Every structure is written in C-alpha cells, then in structure tokens.
Amino acid sequence: MDRALLLVALACYLAPLLSRDDGRLRVLAARWWVPAGILLHVQGLALAFILDSVPLRSMTEGLGLTALTVMLAREWFGRRPRMGLLRRILLALASVLLGLAAVAPSPEGAGAPPSIFFLLHIGLVLTGFAAFALTFSMSALFLVVRRRLKSKDLSEIGRLPSLDTLDVLVIRTMAFGFACLTAGIAGGLALGLITEGKPPALDFTTIVTTLLWLWYAAGLVARVAAGWRGRLVAVFGVGGFVAFMVVAGVGLALSGWHGMGA
User: Fold this and answer.
1) How far apart are CA 99 and CA 133, in angstroms?
2) How large is the angle between the packed helices 231-255 and 116-150, nearest 10 degrees?
3) Residues 91/139, Cβ–Cβ less than 8 Å
4) CB pairs under 8 A, 24+ apart, for 204-208?
5) Domains observed in the chain
6) CA distances, 41 to each of 10, 35, 107, 253 (Å)
7) CA angle 246, 252, 253 (to 5 degrees)
C-alpha cells in the first residue's frame, strides 16, 4: 500500500512537468496536484515506517524521505523571487528519487530493534544526500544562467536569480550537506563499535559514501583555500551528484543499503 501511495504521489509530481508551459493543466497541477502529491508522499512514508519494524532500513523509505526533503526544500526556496526554474528542477529531481524509491528492493525479515545511533546515522546521511541534491539543482541553474549571459540571450533573464545569489546558495547547501554527511558517518562508526566492537566492514555503500565525502570535502577546501567561485564550484556540485546517482543507483538497486536488499 505504501508503494501505491508513492506511485500516485509521483503521478501528481509529474503532471506539471509533462504539461505545456502555457497549458491550463499545468496551472492546475502546480496549484493542486503537487500539494496533493506531497500529502500522499507523507502518508506513504508514514505507513512504511509503521509497517517496518526498523524505520529507514529499506531503500523505499530512505529514497522516499530524501525525495520528500527535496520537495519541502522546493517549497521553501520557491518563496524567493525569480525561483520558478529552480522549483521545476527540484520537482524533476524529487520525481526521479521518488520513482527509484517506489521500485527499490526491501530487506527481508523483521530485523533487530533500531538504536538511536542507527536512526541518527541513517537520518543524517539522508539529510546530507538531500542537501547535495539541492546543491546539484542550484549548480545546474547557475550554469544555465551563466551560459545565457555569456551568449547574450537575455530573454526573460529577469525571471531568473542572479549568479551571486545562486553562488551563495550552492556553497551553503554544500557545506550543510557535508556537515550532515560527516555527522552521519561518525554515527555509523559509533554504531559499529557499539554493536560489533569494531568499525563497520567496507561494502559498496560505505565505499560510495566515503568517496562522496571526499569529493565534497575537496570542493569545500578548494572554495576556502583556493578561492574557487562561480562556474568551477557549480561544475563540482553537478558532477559529484550525477556520478553518485549513477554509481550508487546501480549498486544500491542490486544490494540495498549495506547489502540489506531483497
């Protein structure tokens, strides 16, 4: 039932993306269907949490929660002026994440009762992923605006945010995501030491998460120490998230979180 609700929510998110820019259907979808999709999204995740003895253990819950966080951030940042295109990018990204959540494998068995370190580990890591999704979206929009300015394509440029605004948002979301991911990794190490007396074993999830941490650590160091700004940081934000989605998407679809797939 939870997957069915997520699929209906996905349909609500896709409606404005597939509608014509000047079509009445898109206006209705943006005004009514997207809020309805968010409500169904919340209900689907809540039902999944209730039915699962270990919340956030399955990819459906993890990716679904990440997609919901992106949608809530979309509503928050969308209140700023000239953020219409960013709202559209975030809606498309949340739809991809929710689509993956709806078809992701689920672990078998009841599992052990979750500890506070488990919930903190997963929750912080997923928050970091969501923040990097925002970094990706804002970086992509930065590159779009920059390209239009370079090519002197100024049609409706006033409806897009300035490069300075986007540059600030990119570095802030990247720093926030890095802080959450760092804390989440620390929680995972604490969880392994408490439950098994040793750090968690290296697996696909651990390796990808570590590489992601190193990538964004390098980006932040380059920004602070080398003074990188603008296009270089934006390319960094886009490239890191795209590579992560491709590599992690394939691996996690086959094995789930830390090999806990179907």
Assistant:
1) 15
2) 140
3) no
4) 204/251, 204/252, 204/255, 204/259, 205/248, 205/251, 205/252, 205/255, 205/257, 205/258, 205/259, 206/258, 208/244, 208/247, 208/248, 208/251
5) 113-259 (1.20.120)
6) 8, 10, 21, 21
7) 90
Q: Give the residue-averaged pLDDT of 239-256.
A: 69
| Statement: residue 68 has pLDDT above 90 | yes
- The answer to whether 122 and 184 have CB atoms below 8 angstroms apart is yes
Q: Exposed/middle/buried for 113, CB within 10 Å: 0-12, 13-18, 19+?
A: exposed
Q: For residue 137, is pLDDT > 70?
A: yes
Average pLDDT over residues 193-212: 74
Residue with tokens 């209900």: 43
Give me the percent of the chain exceeding a pLDDT of 90: 21
Q: Which two tokens stand for residue 7?
A: 């699929």
Count of other CB atoms within 10 angstroms of residue 218: 12
d(CA 172, CA 216): 12
Say how many C-beta atoms besides its own lie within 10 A of residue 164's C-beta.
10
Take residue 113 and report the two structure tokens written for it: 């009762």
CA distances to 29, 39, 53, 210 from 32, in Å:
5, 11, 34, 40
pLDDT tens sequence across 205-242: 778 888 888 989 988 888 877 677 777 888 888 888 88
Residue 233 and residue 219 in contact, taking contact as beta carbons nearer than 8 Å: yes
Dig out the tokens for 109 from the structure: 């068995």
Tokens of 35: 């809020």
Q: For 159, which DSSP code?
A: G
Q: How far apart are CA 230 and CA 218, in angstroms?
A: 16
